[in-house]
Design brief:
The complex is a heterodimer of chains A (about 280) and B (about 290).
Chain A: H1 2-34, H2 56-62, E1 65-67, E2 70-72, H3 76-107, H4 113-123, H5 128-142, H6 148-155, H7 159-169, H8 174-182, H9 187-216, H10 219-224, H11 233-243, H12 248-268, H13 270-279
Antiparallel strand pairs in A: 1-2
Helix pairs in contact in A: 1-12, 2-12, 3-6, 3-7, 3-9, 7-9, 8-9, 9-13, 11-12
Chain B: H1 3-33, H2 40-44, H3 55-61, H4 64-96, H5 103-115, H6 118-128, H7 135-142, H8 157-182, H9 186-194, H10 199-227, H11 231-236, H12 248-258, H13 262-289
Helix pairs in contact in B: 3-13, 4-8, 4-10, 4-12, 5-8, 8-10, 9-10, 10-13, 12-13
Classes of the chains: A mainly alpha (about 280), B mainly alpha (about 290).
């Protein structure tokens, strides 16, 4: 019994390891090809390992060079900063807007609360793409097309985030809040001193969701940004991918630059992410 | 107004105002836009805008590419949902086995593709699918199969993109199913084992009924996800070959932001909305049936 059980353990663990290896393989191959000398990945038989490790793709992708008297670069570095900037700002502002609101919907009594809540839940049905065409026209009137504000603003309408925070806040006992109220604390102070510390894990999870969501967002930035110097990474990578489809090594380097920051962020904070995934079920 | 009420409005008003501006107002305008002939002329001057009633919808019905896009999208959903849900369930079942070691490690790594950018990984997979130099055809060659022109053949383009989408997204439902599996009553499982039920019958009669609602809900929710496929064809195939990967959303994007037929595109958006609404109604009905929501 003991022997068969341990044999079974070897088999099932082996299967899990194999499956994981297959899943990670595309990402690993992406990294390996990005270090191949230019053109090597397009030889037969398809190489699995570089003949020599080369940084030339990253150099070409990231460093601005003088070609025939004109400055040239792939605008990946500006795109990287744009992405960092846009994702950070939309996370920060998103948290500032949605966390207090989620708390209010859970714990503060105000007229119309229940109706507003039902409206918010119902609006989850509407796919964001429906709003995009008129939103583009509205932003055009407001002069927000082709601006960072134009990219960030729609990501701040965090209906899901409000409901997510509300759900987590419901678990905080009313007695704690009432006790602080009897002690004469103002509502803002109660939120900051009593509630916020208890919500820290939820806020970290939400921040992670928001940052990754904004970093990976594609359709809306593609619509609203026209100036190549304002492109976020996915938009920039998609643009380069169209012009340089044959330069596999260069494209893999661009993909590494786009995926690596969020992969590292996820691996560091995976506990928050995976528990948040299950806690996120929205109940009315 | 009480002090509490004032504080509540202070906390809620900013986000509600933004939701109203970037979500509620445009959604309402989308309905209005879909009954106009808003095009590049109206973009220049509002005077050129005309009311056309259901004209856009009638036009769409006689546009072959729209039907093609609708058919492709249904194909994506019809094939993709069983593929993605099946993969998630199989992997979750494997990870649920008590003898598997280092589970947290596998779980995190299997989930990793989900957090990556669709555009960046689509670029990677486009190269994996390359007919001459792609890793996939090299693997096929190793077992003696002829190379496949994955993204260049209208018959394999959808399965190829689905392979990529499944790889990218199965981790999400894997986590959901893992949680559902750990809630399967252990005493029932033990009783079935004592009654001599084999592993298939234990799965069929104990596990499946217990996780059934979760499975159904995940399937319905992933239909909505597959209806919104856009970045994959945009990066990998441009809707081709022979329009075999033009999806509803891709069609809407081209119609709206390439040709600037925003009226027509809004009609497409509206139809997409109706499809997702229908699915959500099914979803809440399922939820109610199992007393979930």
């Amino acid at each position: 019994m003991v022997v068969t059980r341990s044999l079974r353990g070897v088999l099932t663990t082996g299967a899990a390891a194999l499956l994981t290896a297959l899943t990670i393989a595309p990402l690993a191959y992406m990294s390996v090809v990005s270090f191949m000398p230019r053109g090597e990945s397009s030889t037969l038989p398809t190489p699995l390992w570089p003949s020599r490790w080369s940084g030339e793709n990253y150099y070409e992708l990231l460093v601005r060079r003088l070609i025939d008297g004109a400055w040239f670069d792939y605008r990946i570095v500006p795109a990287l900063w744009n992405s960092v900037w846009v994702a950070s700002l939309s996370t920060l502002l998103g948290l500032l807007l949605t966390v207090p609101s989620g708390y209010a919907f859970a714990k503060l009594r105000f007229r119309g609360r229940q109706r507003l809540l039902q409206l918010l839940i119902a609006s989850l049905v509407v796919p964001g793409q429906v709003a995009m065409l008129p939103l583009f026209l509205i932003f055009k009137e407001l002069g927000l097309v082709n601006s960072y504000a134009g990219v960030i603003l729609p990501s701040l309408a965090g209906i899901f985030a409000v409901l997510f925070v509300r759900q987590a806040t419901l678990a905080i006992p009313d007695e704690m809040i009432d006790a602080a109220r009897i002690d004469g604390a103002s509502e803002a102070r109660i939120f900051r001193v009593v509630v916020l510390p208890l919500l820290t894990p939820v806020v970290v999870t939400l921040a992670l969701f928001m940052f990754l969501g904004s970093w990976n967002d594609f359709l809306w930035p593609l619509i609203v940004l026209a100036d190549q110097n304002r492109y976020t990474l996915p938009v920039a990578v998609a643009a380069i991918a169209r012009e340089h489809a044959a330069d596999a090594e260069l494209m893999m380097a661009a993909s590494v630059v786009t995926t690596l920051p969020v992969l590292l962020l996820f691996l560091t904070l995976q506990r928050y992410y995976l528990t948040g995934l299950l806690g996120g079920s929205v109940k009315g | 107004m009480t002090r509490q009420e004032r504080a509540a409005w202070l906390f809620c008003a900013p986000v509600l105002a933004i939701i109203a501006l970037v979500f509620v107002l445009p959604t309402a305008l989308a309905m209005a836009l879909s009954v106009t002939d808003y095009s590049v002329y109206a973009l220049g001057d509002w005077q050129n805008l005309r009311f056309v009633g259901l004209g856009n919808f009638v036009d769409l019905l006689s546009t072959p590419l729209f039907w093609r896009a609708l058919g492709n999208t249904l194909m994506f959903a019809g094939l993709g949902v069983p593929m993605a849900i099946g993969t998630s369930l199989a992997v979750a079942l494997l990870l649920h086995d008590t003898t598997v070691r280092w589970k947290p490690l596998w779980r995190v790594l299997l989930f990793a593709p989900y957090v990556t950018s669709v555009v960046a990984t689509a670029v990677v997979w486009r190269f994996l699918f390359n007919e001459r130099f792609g890793l996939l055809n090299r693997a096929l060659g190793a077992i003696g199969l002829p190379p496949v022109d994955w993204l260049g053949n209208p018959h394999t383009s959808i399965p190829a993109i689905l392979l990529f989408v499944t790889w990218k997204t199965f981790g999400y439902n894997m986590i959901v199913f893992t949680a559902a599996l750990s809630a399967v009553p252990q005493d029932l499982m033990e009783a079935a084992r004592l009654d001599g039920a084999g592993s298939w019958r234990r799965f069929r009669h104990v596990t499946l009924p217990a996780i059934g609602p979760t499975l159904l809900l995940a399937a319905v929710m992933s239909i909505a996800g597959f209806l919104q496929i856009f970045a994959e064809p945009y990066v990998m195939t441009m809707g081709g070959p022979a329009q075999s990967t033009t999806t509803v959303l891709f069609f809407m994007f081209e119609e709206g932001f390439k040709w600037w037929n925003l009226g027509q595109a809004s009609a497409v958006a509206f139809i997409l909305f109706l499809m997702i609404l229908a699915i959500t109604l099914v979803q809440t009905r399922i939820g109610r049936r199992y007393e979930w929501l």
